Amino acid sequence: MNAQLQPAQDGNFRLLIGGKLVAGASSFDVINPATEEVYARCPRADLQQLNQAVAAAKAAFPAWKATPLAERARLLNKLADAIESHAAELAPILTQEQGKPLGGAHFELAVAAGNIRGFAQMDLPEVVLQDDATTRIIRQRLPLGVVAAITPWNFPVIMMVTKLAPALLAGNTIVVKPAPTTPLTSLKVGELCAEIFPPGVVNVIADANDLGGALTSHPDVAKIAFTGSTATGRKVMASASATLKRLTLELGGNDAAIVLDDVDPKEVAPKLFFAAMVNSGQVCLAAKRIFIHEKVYDAVVAELAQIAEGAANLVGNGLNEGVQFGPVQNRMQFEKVRGLIEDARKQGKVLAGGKEHQGKGFFIYPTVIAGLPDSARLVCEEQFGPVMPVLKFSTIDEAIERANNSEYGLGATVWARDINRALEVANRLETGTVWINKHLDLPPSVPYGGVKQSGFGVELGQQGLEEFTQIRVINMAKA
Ligand code: NAD
């Protein structure tokens, strides 16, 4: 794979439909959130191109399904190699459309390549369920057909390939639709796919937030792998019902961090800060409500406020050296997070951050807010930005009850010296993942997913692969 990716300029991004890199029916602006200027024009698919993409995926399905799994895995490994070897070209595009610092963009590309390789090592063997004198029963796992992958704007590349790799390994074909504010790196990954996979196996289209419904209701789409907000997830589920499409819904979260009374405040505070502020807080699994035991509350909060004040100097354009916190990704999210801060100011106390950024860019300084009731919007809604509410608790029962008091159930963290006590807390939390004394450890072999209104189905792991299959049982009489 030696093709050079085109530099990011007008007209240099193309859709991938049926193996061809094509212009959109029209185009739209992609805004750099650090400058609020137009970074590039993005091709925009219309309904006809969406239908062409689905038709191409449908046409490619029989041959791809018949391709041995080992060959499908080989091509996926080639994609992982290509993402790595093009990282120097892809990372600045990701930074300029998403806002994350260059280091974060490189990290995202490395994780994406690692996730692809993780899936490429997996297998879907037949399983013999019964084998005796009279009967042999075999369970097979078969692909579903055309998969639609719909992704959000916080980790565009990871979200794309974490759907694409298991879908393709299992023998499905795919149509990818990234978020309209971050479509460009996904289109570039599409260009890499064009060099590797047979025509139609991978299709990548971009929209102006108007084609999701057509994709999720398309009669030739068998499965939707969706990551995004709970509100949109509900629409996806309703739209998919007409043809009973299979669904994986990775939705919103409002993860609790529970800090027990035996922690060392100096040691735990930087980890908590990272858990809340990584990717400028725009992580589904970010710590979004920080419950701290009253015995260590003052000391931990003082540390957090100090770290947040220091971190204000590390906020900026992700292309600049030393920047660790980029802008919030788009204006709508920026206004939402600012609104939550203003609302929280009325009931609580801003201990750090919270100041308006002067000049261009959707920048929000890492903000710590204390003294809020659990009913405050910043506590009960998903902020998805660099703002952490710190909340005091007296007993473990109280902390668990308040943590579980949410429509969401994606992840949680527990922080303690005594691992056994932490484990007791973890065992009572209603979430898909609980980390103890760590955060965001997501190896490709380990599934993650939400409970309650954080969605259903999992990504990653063998189970994440099996989400892209259906079972067929062969039950034969021997005598
Ligand atoms: P969003 O729901 O606004 O958009 C997600 C995607 O859905 C975009 O591609 C969008 O164009 C598309 N879309 C919009 N309307 C649609 C419709 N009617 N039918 C089908 N698709 C439609 O989400 P976002 O703002 O891009 O992302 C932020 C949200 O994603 C947060 O809530 C975050 O927690 C969640 N998220 C969850 C996970 C997870 O793994 N659970 C991971 C990352 C982000």
Layout of helices and strands, plus pairs?
Elements: E1 15-17, E2 20-22, E3 26-32, E4 37-44, H1 47-66, H2 69-85, H3 87-98, H4 102-120, E5 127-131, E6 135-143, E7 146-150, H5 156-169, E8 173-177, H6 184-196, E9 202-204, H7 212-216, E10 223-227, H8 230-240, E11 246-250, E12 255-259, H9 265-277, E13 287-293, H10 294-311, H11 331-347, E14 349-352, E15 367-370, H12 377-380, E16 387-393, H13 396-404, E17 408-409, E18 411-415, H14 419-426, E19 433-436, E20 451-452, E21 455-456, H15 461-466, E22 469-477
Parallel strand pairs: 7-8, 7-10, 8-9, 10-11, 12-13, 12-18, 13-16, 15-16, 18-19
Antiparallel strand pairs: 1-2, 3-4, 5-6, 6-22, 11-21, 14-15, 17-20
The chain binds nicotinamide-adenine-dinucleotide (NAD).
Strand content: 15-25%
- Count of helical regions: 15
Distance between the termini: 54 Å
Strand order of the largest sheet: 14-15-16-13-12-18-19
Which stretches are low in confidence, meaning pLDDT under 50 for 5 or more residues running? none
Regarding quaternary structure, how should these chains be classified? Answer: single chain
Overall spatial form = globular
Write a structural description.
By secondary structure, the protein is an alpha/beta fold. Helix content is 39%, strand content 23%. It is built from 15 helices and 22 strands. The protein has helices at 47-66, 69-85, 87-98, 102-120, 156-169, 184-196, 212-216, 230-240, 265-277, 294-311, 331-347, 377-380, 396-404, 419-426, 461-466, and strands spanning 15-17, 20-22, 26-32, 37-44, 127-131, 135-143, 146-150, 173-177, 202-204, 223-227, 246-250, 255-259, 287-293, 349-352, 367-370, 387-393, 408-409, 411-415, 433-436, 451-452, 455-456, 469-477. The strands form six sheets. The chain has a seven-stranded mixed sheet with strand order 14-15-16-13-12-18-19, with helices on both faces. Strands 9-8-7-10-11-21 form a six-stranded mixed sheet, sandwiched between helices. It has a three-stranded antiparallel sheet with strand order 5-6-22, with no helix packed on it. Helix 6 links the parallel strand 8 and strand 9. Helix 2 packs across helix 6, helix 3 packs across helix 4 (102-120) and helix 4 packs parallel to helix 5 (156-169). It starts with 14 loop residues before the first strand and ends with a strand. Residues 150-154, 177, 179-180, 209, 212-213, 216, 227-229, 232, 235-236, 250-253, 284, 382, 384, 410, 450, 455 line the site of nicotinamide-adenine-dinucleotide (NAD).
